[in-house]
Amino acid sequence: METDYIFLTIGQLLTASVLMAVNIGLSLILKLGLAKQWSIASLRMVGQLLLVGFLLDWVFALNNPFWILGVALFMATIASITAVGRTRKRFSAIYLNSFISILGAGFFVMFFALSGVLQIDPWYSPQYLFPLLGMVLGNTLNGISLALERFMDSLSVRRKEVEMLLSLGATSWEAAHDLIRDALRTSMIPTLNSMLVMGIVSLPGMMTGQILAGVSPGEAVRYQIMMIFVIASGAALGATLVVILAFRALFNSRHQLLLKHLRTVS
């Protein structure tokens, strides 16, 4: 399939930005109070993407594994901080737990995809690592955020139920099992819903981008299927890791609930 790639000019980007006026206008007309947030988010998004573009151009040119993995580690760090930033209840080790979960889940599925599936040599090739890692981290942080929020809210709301089970001789795991299960189910539902309608209701971003770049739809579909498996696995592993770590932080070895370690942030 022969296709001419369309390079976007600054003028075309400015034209596209006019569409944000719709969001800002609706917020002002309906008094949603989101006009300022939309403006800040738009400017921040543009600045961040431009900065990332320059940074990746530089890293691509260097082709140094230490710089490549260093940038990947930085991306994972920001993702872990963002995941915690969406939760209202926190404990002292929550940022470390989020980082361990995102790093462990994200890099495991990425290494499997790049080395085992795509068989890239070397597996850390920036052309493949950064675009795929970005998608994995974005979905994994969402799963972690949803799981943490649900688990800690459930512990607070159902505190008496958990403590009653513990007083009757249940272990920490037995008392918290339903809460852990519900938290993990909550974190996985968005991915499941997306997979169920993919190709019928929505065309995923990676597939759309490849088609716009001139890749045949059949080839783009195969890449997208692979990435959905990778993304779903990363989100599930990350959510599971972070909930287990949160469970270990909020229960002690004597099977006591340590809810005093939780604090609520505004």
TrEMBL record:
Transmembrane annotation, as ranges = 6-30, 42-60, 66-84, 96-116, 128-148, 195-213, 225-251
Keywords for this protein? Membrane, Transmembrane, Transmembrane helix
Q: How does it sit in the membrane?
A: Multi-pass membrane protein
- Spell out the GO cellular component terms annotated for this protein, sorted alphabetically and separated by semicolons: plasma membrane
Q: Where in the cell is it found?
A: Membrane
Q: Name one Pfam family in it.
A: UPF0014
| InterPro entries per record | UPF0014_fam (IPR005226)
Chief subcellular location: membrane
Q: Which family does it belong to?
A: Belongs to the UPF0014 family.
Q: What is this protein called?
A: Iron export ABC transporter permease subunit FetB
Query: Which taxonomic lineage does the organism of this UniProt entry have?
Result: Bacteria, Deltaproteobacteria, SAR324 cluster
